[in-house]
Amino acid sequence: MAHVLGTQAWLDAVCDAINGSEQYADVATDWDWPVAFAFEGAGDVPTRRVLLDLTAGVCRAARVVDEDGYAQAPFRISAPLDRWVEVLEGRVESMRALVLHRLHCEGDRLTLLRHLACAKALLEAVRSVDVEVPVPA
Fold first, then answer.
1. Residue/partner pairs of 20-24 with CB below 8 Å, 24 or more apart
2. Per-residue pLDDT tens digits for 53-98
3. What are phi and psi of 118, to 5 degrees?
4. pTM, whole model, 2 decimals?
5. Is-contact 95 119, C-beta < 8 A?
């Protein structure tokens, strides 16, 4: 069943997928920071902000957040919906998108670079969730 991107139902499925990923659990043992994502809306589709509470290879919680909750996360990644679709569908590699500023990243980039395997495993877990992307009218 597909869940709408950025909704609590989608986040619940994402958290379950992360916790079910042996690959993520193996490579994320020393990751201990929440990560926030903003899916920037267009037209009648609102911007959605979410937070994944990640520690030691486990997703402890995943929730929709407001602007303040997003701003407080130590790592924040944002982009327009169409760019997120490219990443989620595998048409653009996530680290390449960050380097080329197709995804906007705030936080310690060196920490992210040291955890590339973690980021890739996280993305694979997220990609395993059937998602419906809202289309602007």
1. 20/125, 21/121, 21/124, 21/125, 21/128, 23/121, 23/124, 23/125, 24/57, 24/118, 24/121, 24/122, 24/124, 24/125
2. 999 999 999 999 999 999 999 999 999 999 888 888 888 877 777 7
3. -65, -50
4. 0.93
5. yes
CATH of the domain at 29: 3.30.1050.10
Question: What is the domain range of residue 11?
Answer: 3-127
- In the chain, the number of structural domains is 1
Task: Output the pLDDT for position 90.
Answer: 85
Which pLDDT band holds residue 11 (cuts at 50, 70, 90)? very high
